[in-house]
Amino acid sequence: MPSKVKLAIVVGLSLAALAATPAFGFRGGAPAGFSGSTGDSGFSCLLCHGEKPGSGMIEILGAPASYEANGIYTLTVRITDDDKLGAGFQLAAEDSMAMSAGDFTIIDSNTQFSDGLPAWVTHTGDGVNESVFNWAAMGNSFEFTVEWQAPSSDVGPITFYAAGNAINNDFTSAGDHAYITNVTSNFNDCPWDLTGSGSVGSSDLGALLGQWGEPFGSSDLAALLGSWGPCPK
Question: How much is the pTM?
């Protein structure tokens, strides 16, 4: 599926929706355009949830330091706050031109596409309820997980943006703690350089054979041998 261009009109409509319902939290999912990304003009949960960030944090876990063409990665957004009782979030991935990059896949009932638009992933009502139920057991935190498939070719650096809201569970936007973060991934044009030496050789072959069966197999061996030699410059 091709990358989607983020349209300013979507953000405008979302802002109108926010203005129309200032007292209510978006427990059923954040509207599109509030990940804190460049394409979202920096808009995030901070726009509606007026309390300043607390002592907690938001993290993006599993984002690759370098992505491979069509690579599939499991991304986890974790929100932590000792003073709150649950959380919601929004996640986006953009290239350097602020266009959405790659494709998200929803893998459980805790997440959905914001306003049905696949450029943004957000929580569901079930996800927020799950976060409240498990908050204390998870060390005053909760994790939302989604899959992301990289583009089919090198599109340059891709930045993952996440905005999170640690809630007091009063079903309004008041008294919450909003957080933002981002992580950048560069294209990996030499995926079989397993040792980071700048070339594919015997050390990489040894590393592959040492992990034979999980996660590597015969098709990986063929791919490694086909990439033998210096990495592209």
Answer: 0.80
Residue 210 identity: G
Phi, psi of 210 (to 5 degrees): -70, -20
Question: Which CATH architecture does the domain made up of 8-187 adopt?
Answer: Sandwich (2.60)
The tens digit of pLDDT for each residue in 117-155 reads 999 999 999 999 999 999 999 999 999 999 999 999 999
* Encoded amino acid at 134, one letter: N
Collapsed DSSP state (helix, strand, coil) of residue 143: strand
Is 105 in contact with 9 (CB distance < 8 Å)? no
Q: Where are the domains of the chain?
A: 8-187, 199-230
Peptide bond into 215 cis (omega under 30): yes
At 94, list the tokens: 């953009």
Residue 96's CB is within 10 A of a number of other CB atoms, namely 13
